[in-house]
Amino acid sequence: MKLWRVRCTLPDRPGALAVLARDCGAAKVNILGLQIFPGVETVTDELVLSTPPDWSLVDIAELIEAAGATSVSGAPCTERALVDQPVRYVLAARSVLAQPASFPEVVAELFDAESDPAEGMLTPVQDVMEMTVGDVAVQVRRTAPFTATEHARGSAMADLVNDVLARTRAEGAPQPPAPGRRVDPSSRPEYVASAGEVSARVDGTVVGVAVLGAPDQGTEPGALQVTLEVDPVWRRRGIGTRLLVEAARTAAGRSAEEIVLSTEADNQAVLPLVLAAGLRGRIRMASDRLTVRIPVRDLRPLPA
């Protein structure tokens, strides 16, 4: 048997779901999971279906549409789709409470973010849901449209992160010490900018660098790709934040409209980095990549 996660829209009338269940049973398709997102005149149902191994999404769509449903979308899934939905949200809230920086990664998994439309999708246009943390907009995209219920849940998750960050700032929570060799607390990096990069140096040694790529390196017109790296021993000292700000200023000097950072989806340093820099960024989460786009004109100077 083959597992599928499928969404469809049913008319909000008695018996509509019963007709779908009857037709699935007749076709030897088993409904293993069901989540309902109510609307005003229609209802969005998310189904986990077990089908014969030779079935495709087209076969599923024909079956569901014959039962009166519309807006069918779906993709193959694993047994993880059978996890109880309230449990998923509780675990997600627990994760962001313990580590607010994990918010982009957590919501990407929670709302089934996609990198590209899955092969065989009937509706390749992706929907987007945006949640705001501080001045940073976090976006997740997928083929199945987000419901009003999911938008409300995403907003509540973002509010939770904002509350945690506000409480942390109020309490003045100390940053963990950097690992590795001892460093002189009085050491202050010098920042050196050129047309193509910004480096942080201590006693002539480079401890961090932000490299600006050429406009044609896989980015949109007016955007510059930025690669940022800080020596692990010198992290959590504000160097990455300063490098990002100086890189944005350098990009603005090159008449760029925005800078773009791309990294692994589980990189939890990105959200605190953008927030600390005072930048109005936009984080897009995909299944395996995290992309940040920052308009350089929105740059705010760091406190002295």
TrEMBL record:
Residues 159-303 form the N-acetyltransferase domain. InterPro entries: Acyl_CoA_acyltransferase, GNAT_dom. The keyword Transferase applies. It comes from the Bacteria. GO terms for molecular function: acyltransferase activity, transferring groups other than amino-acyl groups. Pfam families: Acetyltransf_1 (PF00583). This is GNAT family N-acetyltransferase. Residues 168-190 are annotated as: Disordered. Keywords: Transferase.
